[in-house]
Amino acid sequence: xxxxxxxxxxxxxxxxxxxQRTEALKAKGVSPTxxxxxxxxxxxxLSYERGAMKRCEKIGVAVRQFLLPADTTQEALLxxxxxxxxxxxxxxxxxxxxxxxxxxxxxxxxxxxxxxxxDGITDGSLAGVFAGTEHGFPxxxxxxxxxxxxxxxxxxxxxxxxxxxxxxxxxxxxxxxLLKQNATVTICHTRTxxxxxxxxxADVLVVAAGRAGVVDASYVxxxxxxxDVGINVNAEGKLCGDVAFDQVEPVVGAITPVPGGVxxxxxxxxxxxxxxxxxxASR
Length: 283
What we know:
The protein has helices at residues 7-27, 43-59, 74-86, 105-111, 123-131, 140-151, 171-180, 195-200, 245-248, 262-281; strands at residues 3-4, 33-39, 62-68, 92-95, 160-164, 184-188, 204-207, 225-228, 232-233, 239-240, 254-255. Helix content is 42%, strand content 16%. The strands form three sheets. It has a six-stranded parallel sheet with strand order 1-11-8-7-5-6. The chain is α/β, with parallel strands linked by helices.
């Protein structure tokens, strides 16, 4: 049986450390603050917002909400982003996307200051990830994968890491973060030839394919560490990952569950980015 890499355990450890960092900032007169910018009322946005606000409250990070109607104009949203950028009391911004069709996503994303882009959506933040600098922040889900590996003590130096997926949200940034930890990284995608063979070669396999249960026992080998980023709803209406857990878990050495894995760590990473942004601003 594989070791189960519980995201809840990682989140608890991160929360304890963040409470201490937040208290240290407040002792210096700095109150870490997150701006939440939401257009409309998509249920998935509302659910994530509730989770993020609950985590902020637990850690001691303040939240300011900027809520706009679904039919808002691009200029109104740009004005909101300008307010966030210019307010020194706001350290990070969570902008919910996708945006309504009348709004140009790229224009809005690039209007956000990278130093306040705590969810890694701007080109500036992504450039920081690829260059290995402190310019902006990596996408929260990508960093959540790395936090899990670090918490459970996996030394990535010289290890073979395979990332399934090449999106800018997870695949590409997590590949760069693995590379920064001196892993040898392969990115697989829909045009990869003999993907199961490539995945079997990995010491660490990060799966962000966007398809429920696509990775079965034919993709894995004994001793591997499998990080399942997928969030899907199966035919029974239950949450499941991109990995067929029941088939893969008996083979590999360790695996993240869904739910209770990467997703459990993501809001913690978001708040950690806000605290880090406040620390940088107070230097």
